[in-house]
Amino acid sequence: MVALSLTDELEESERKIGFIPAHIEEPVLVKKTEVDLEMGCYVKSERIGDISVVSFDRLTNGTRFCEPFELDFSNHPDIVAVLLRAGQTQNMEAKCLFSLNFSIPQAVEMALQLDTGQLEGAIGQVLNQQKEETPESTVRVVTDEEITNLAGRLPDAKYSKICEELGFDYNYAQKVKTKLFLDSTAAFKEILQEWKDKGGFIVDLDKALRNSDLEGLIHKYKKQK
After folding, report:
1. What is the DSSP-derived secondary structure letter of residue 37?
2. Could you tell me the CA-to-CA distances from 165 to 133, 158, 200, 210 in Å, in that order?
3. Whole-angstrom distance between the N-terminal and C-terminal Cα of the chain?
């Protein structure tokens, strides 16, 4: 058995530059002899970056190892869920899901370009603005209360578009709506509940709203009544 982990040296270098890493240690069973281990990173079902291959000899020499990944998140939100997969088969059966949050480091980097006298106030202003503008926008599953809040605010004209963005085809979406006597609020609620039960992340729901020109609802549905 091997463990996916970061070396102490890498952790120390990350701390020096202020990087906040996702430190993972996940056991992976070595099931086959003379078969290399493959590791890859995925966002949903899309692989990002190259597959990293660790030779069987390295797996069995008894030392810890670290494999870097060069990943391009330019087409993804600042807060994104990444699935690390590893294994000796094509399925890469060992999986570990973690979140990456690039929003705060980016904000601090911009603030560091200011004069020293402005730095403290700038950082505080940026962080407070993020907290105000993106309440609870974390990589998590949407709550039942948020589903109820959002379903009551979504316009009927956007029903098909929202369903499409969440991965439901047109015919299925219309079937749900017809079953509920064309009540769009009830249909939205059922679709959102089904999407939630599949483990959908709230950042993906926010993205669906943006793509449907409903960005103004992102903050409203997260507010508790």
Report:
1. E
2. 23, 11, 12, 10
3. 50
CB atoms within 10 A of CB 55: 12
Question: pLDDT tens digits for 186-217?
Answer: 999 999 999 988 777 888 899 999 999 998 99
Neighbouring residues of 13: CB distance < 8 A, sequence distance ≥ 6: none
| 83: Cα separation from own chain's centroid | 9
Residue type, 158: K
130 vs 140: CA distance, rounded Å: 17
Percentage of residues of the chain with pLDDT beyond 70: 64
* Pairing between β-strand 94-101 and β-strand 46-54 as defined by DSSP bridges: unpaired
pTM value surpassing 0.70:
no
Average pLDDT score, the chain:
74
Q: Residue 178 corresponds to which tokens in the numbers above?
A: 């017809």
3-state secondary structure (DSSP) of residue 10: helix
Tell whether the model's pLDDT for residue 165 goes beyond 80: yes
**How many CB atoms are located within 10 Å of the residue 29 CB?**
11
Distances (CA, A) of 10 to 17, 23, 57, 87, 115: 11, 11, 23, 23, 31
Q: Which residue has the higher pLDDT, 50 or 102?
A: 50
SS3 43: strand
SS3 content of the chain, % helix, strand, coil (to 5): 45, 20, 40
